[in-house]
Amino acid sequence: MINMRERIQIGLVAAICGGLAFAQKTPSTQPGGRDLKIETLGTNAPDRAAKPAGVTIPRSYALIIGIGRYQNIPADRQLQFSERDADSIYWILINPEGGNFHAENVHRLIGAKATLSNIRQELENWLPSVAQDGDRVLIYFAGHGFLAQGKAYLAPYDIDLKNITTSGYPMETLGSVIGGKIRAKSKILLTDACHSGAIRPEDTQNFNHRVIDLDKSLFSLTASRDREQSFESPDWGGGHGIFTYYVVKGLEGEADENRNGIVTADELQDYVYRNVREATQGRQNPTSAQGSFDPNMLLAYIPTNAKPGGPAAAKNGTLIFESNMDGVEVFLDGKSQGVLNKGKPLTLPGLTPGVHTVMGVKRGYEPDGPREEMVYPGQDSTVTIKIMIARQRNRAAVDHLDKGLELYNKGYQQNYQKAVEEFLKALDADPTYSLAALYLGRTYNALFDNEQAQKYFRKAIEIDPDYLEARAAFGSMLLDIGNVDEAIRQFSAVLQRDPKYIMALTNLAEAYRFKDLYAQSIESARKAIQLAPKLAEPHLWLAESLRQSGKYPESKAEYDRYLALSNFDSKTAGQLNYYVVGFLFGAGKKRRATQQDIWQDLRSLAYLGMCDCERKLSNFDVAIEHCQKSLAYHKDDPYGHYTLALALMQKAVNTGDRGLLSAALRHFQTMVELNPDLTEVQYANKNIAAIQRELQNH
After folding, report:
1. Residue 84 is part of a domain; what is its CATH number?
2. CB-neighbour burial class of residue 549 (10 A; exposed 0-12, middle 13-18, buried 19+)
3. Is 278 within a domain?
């Protein structure tokens, strides 16, 4: 289980005083695990399904670009679904039943962030700097593409249509980067743009040979041929580019023709080409460089799809969902397909023929399903979802839930244990009582029983798949125990349904901050603050990520806002339930379960961050004061003692005050005693030895 202090990375500053040299630690800017060649399925995700023998998932990196509203393009030429397409690609890539990418290895440039400068930075600097031999690299682009002077260009957000050749990103350069700068065993290029097929134009022998002549490690699948248009429509999955819709469906498992749980490059190519061509009556023809890639390249792994020896899929069919009520979430084979409204059908083409499980759910009502529907080869079938019966709760179940909530809201271990008994009785009286299952998950989590907590969080979601609060709370619990990848997937699933869900945005900011994805953390935190400016926690995670980005004055301001917004007395904090108000970040849960202690740890973290900012700005007196306040909330925090020791040491160097050196020595020694296994201990020990020599010599 990860202690909150282990999430804090503190860079040290070199300090020299005469013959006294203090050890420093340079903060790593590299994502964790980069020295590994292979990431096996299950890394950082203990609840993932076991893989069959022989299936390995290579370490994987992706760049996703999606642009709908362009800065300089007329309104009638803007795109509706490109950014939604990019989100869909992201969700399937980070899904363990899909691409199996780790979230920190997937960078996104969406909308106004997808400038020419940022695209160049990610393609030409980031990917070449991280990808190594044996890795898998995927590049996805959804937006406009243009032809100018016989060459093809991807259109960044800031493209100038009067000067495409200098403001667009040349396909030729993209081919050069992929072929010459990015090292990887498997390279995947997916482009959903008008004229994107020009990456290998059939009528120009000399154009873009660097892409055409790449070795077989490149799988290039583009939305259309040269001089063809790529289409988008609300009729595909509620609104997508047609090419991307089928790419996502394929990666979800529909392209897995031999039903072995693996979607290969060959399978995805065949599936996407066949379905896009048919859907557009031949007006759009996805292309790939025939023979230029390993046909068995692994693109997605769907273990639940594996049916050894199963027959090859016949021609795909279509299900058209309709509902008698607004706000009905549709599930197909256990995967959410979107929200269905009355009078607005949801069309899902490209489905494997045979029996599929469908379900429609709406909170407060009995679901329609799960039930089986047949998909017929080459045919459209209408599925009518009828939400009819409002759920009626068993009176005894409601009474037990109310008693459990009263105990739960009091906090502390003895009350949690009694609350569990009441929630179990409520669920026994009504097995469909998702609220009882949710609070069992929360209560077991407060009691540190992670196995039971996960069981009941999953139970709540199984009962009500559209229960966003349960998903968000489950994600919080996963984040608390260090399963950050799965937590990000849960928060992303919530935000896919409700982009303004504040709890998910705030927790996602923390998750991204833990993954060192500071820009994404800052973006999520700012979205939460925009929606709820008086909520304290988003300001804390914004401050943390700003600090880690070296923006110390901005960071200090956000720490101040957090401290001001959370400035109530400890008695009040003890009465709060952080799950009820939406936030439980794992602070201190390794040691204690009380809500008061969570509040204390968060404030301790804020003062520690303030201390580090002031120290980096050489304001040592203020830094020392803030570190002392941090330790007043959490006296056994090794990082608090460590940072205070650094501030004292650096002030001693500036002033020659030997008393400060002695104080720094004591705090370094306390830090080592509290946790001798921390990485920073090696630097603390060097500083201890240096200070002791200095004190002995004088």
Report:
1. 3.40.50.1460
2. middle
3. yes
Q: What is the C-alpha to C-alpha distance for residues 212 and 207, in angstroms, rounded to an integer?
A: 9
Structural domain boundaries enclosing 377:
317-385
Q: Domain check: are 341 and 296 in the same one?
A: no
- Domain CATH for 339: 2.60.40.1120
Q: How far is CA 296 from CA 59, 95, 138, 407, 431, in A?
A: 17, 20, 16, 56, 45
My answer on whether 360 and 225 are in the same domain is no
pTM for this predicted structure: 0.74
Q: Cβ distance 397 to 433 under 8 Å?
A: yes
* 255 and 126 fall within a common domain: yes
Question: Is residue 331 domain-shared with residue 378, that is, in the same domain?
Answer: yes
Instruction: Kindly state the average pLDDT of the residues 300-328.
Output: 77
* Same-domain status, 377 and 345: yes
What pLDDT was estimated at residue 47? 39
Return the CATH number at 611. Answer: 1.25.40.10
Residue range 403-453, pLDDT digits in tens: 999 998 887 889 999 999 999 999 999 999 999 999 999 999 889 899 999
Instruction: Give me the chain's average pLDDT, please.
Output: 81
Q: Are 409 and 580 in contact (CB under 8 A)?
A: yes
Please tell me whether residues 273 and 330 are part of one structural domain: no
Which residues are CB-contacts of 551 (< 8 A; sequence separation ≥ 6)?
none
Element (H, E) at 561: helix 552-565
Give exposure, 236-259, as e/b (b: 16+ Cβ within 10 Å).
bbbbbbbbbbbbbbbbbbbbbbbb
Q: State the CB neighbour count (10 A cutoff) for residue 5.
A: 23
Q: What is the model's pLDDT at position 35?
A: 22
* Secondary structure of 655-680 in HEC code, one letter for each residue: HCCHHHHHHHHHHHHHHHHHCCCCCC
Rounded to 5°, angle at Cα 67 from 61 and 68: 145
| Residue finishing a domain among 258, 280, 305 | 305
> What string of DSSP letters covers 37-87?
SB--TTTT-TTSPPPPTT---B-EEEEEEE-SS-SSS-GGG--SSHHHHHH
End residue of a domain, out of 358, 385, 412? 385
Task: Give the model confidence (pLDDT) of 540-549 as tens digits.
Answer: 999 999 999 9
- pLDDT tens per residue, range 173-215: 888 898 888 988 889 999 888 656 554 444 333 333 434 444 4
In the numeric block, the tokens 């008061």 are attached to 596
Determine contact, residues 496/515, Cβ cutoff 8 Å.
Answer: no
Please state the rounded mean pLDDT for residues 114-134: 94
Extract the tokens encoding 51: 């893989």
How many structural domains comprise the chain?
3
